[in-house]
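pls design
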């Protein structure tokens, strides 16, 4: 079973899936994890105190709020822990927190499909249809809405299958074509030739 984070990583660079799930390369300690957890707790406690959910909207005033929701689907072969799930009379709204800046007020592509993967899990776990979700970017305090349409669902399902394929077939994929990503990659020390290959 893969995780929703794998979908995000796959979009960043498919080779990361190979290092993580096929070669089982140990990850170096992540300095950002502790800071991320503190920020996560801080956003969650603010959101618990807030009258409505996320931002002022009469529709969200009476919403039920669920935090750190564990989701799993054997059909999708996917699991993940969603930061925040808003439930109104009419809909379920998944929300993912990000501890960086938005993309000029918009969403980063890998975050979009990560949220879509959570939405698929919410649909299956709560027997519902998710119409929209949000990414909350903490650095610029922006909530970006994503509308879940058939195209996003189709692409997300395809990515989930492709991640599974890398793990099953154990074939090393070609890495990202964007060398800037290698600078921040936790696997760069093991990734021989990544600079020149790109
Ligand atoms: S170093 Fe670059 S090519 Fe290698 S896994 Fe990381 S992002 Fe991908």
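designed seq:
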């Amino acid at each position: 079973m893969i995780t929703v984070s794998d979908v995000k990583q796959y979009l960043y660079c498919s080779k990361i899936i190979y290092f993580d799930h096929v070669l089982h390369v140990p990850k170096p300690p992540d300095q950002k994890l502790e800071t991320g957890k503190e920020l996560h707790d801080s956003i969650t406690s603010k959101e618990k105190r807030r009258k409505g959910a996320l931002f002022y909207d009469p529709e969200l005033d009476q919403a039920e709020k669920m935090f750190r929701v564990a989701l799993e689907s054997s059909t999708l072969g996917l699991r993940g822990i969603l930061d925040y799930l808003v439930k109104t009379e009419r809909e379920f709204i998944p929300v993912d927190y990000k501890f960086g800046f938005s993309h000029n007020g918009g969403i980063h592509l890998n975050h979009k499909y990560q949220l879509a993967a959570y939405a698929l899990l919410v649909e299956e776990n709560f027997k519902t249809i998710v119409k929209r979700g949000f990414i909350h970017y903490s650095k610029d305090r922006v909530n970006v809405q994503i509308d879940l349409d058939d195209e996003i669902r189709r692409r997300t399902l395809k990515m989930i299958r492709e991640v599974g394929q890398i793990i099953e077939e154990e074939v090393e994929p070609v890495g990202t074509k964007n060398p800037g990503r290698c600078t921040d990659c936790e696997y760069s020390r093991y990734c021989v030739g990544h600079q020149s290959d790109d």
